[in-house]
Specification:
Elements (H helix, E strand, L loop, with lengths): L1 H15 L8 H17 L5 H19 L4 H11 L22
């Protein structure tokens, strides 16, 4: 009961707004490829290589969710990154407002 009482404020919106769904199937289905990929990360050769692979999976997953061609996004990003400010790297993320050229 203590757990429920502590979590209830987070659930309250679900009961007040019928448009909000109680399940998280959409998110679980979206991250399934990454969860399956975790097994593959064991064979990346090194911890750093596994981190890099996980980042790419994440970027490509974001592209897919936003209906952006991952190959075009990556090609554009690799062209832009050498001259891009390190303080504005978020501008290179898939779906950033100024990535309209894709």
């Amino acid at each position: 009961m203590t757990y429920f009482i502590n979590q209830y404020p987070k659930l309250e919106a679900i009961f007040e707004d019928g448009r909000i769904e109680l399940d998280n199937n959409l998110i679980e289905n979206a991250i399934r490829p990454m969860a399956i990929g975790r097994k593959n990360y064991l064979f990346c050769g090194s911890h750093k290589a596994a981190q890099n692979a996980a980042m790419l999976y994440s970027f490509f997953g974001s592209c897919k969710m936003q209906k952006i061609n991952p190959r075009e996004w990556l090609e554009d990003t690799l062209k832009r990154i050498p001259d891009h400010s390190i303080q504005k790297l978020d501008e290179l993320l898939p779906g950033y407002q100024e990535n309209i050229t894709l």
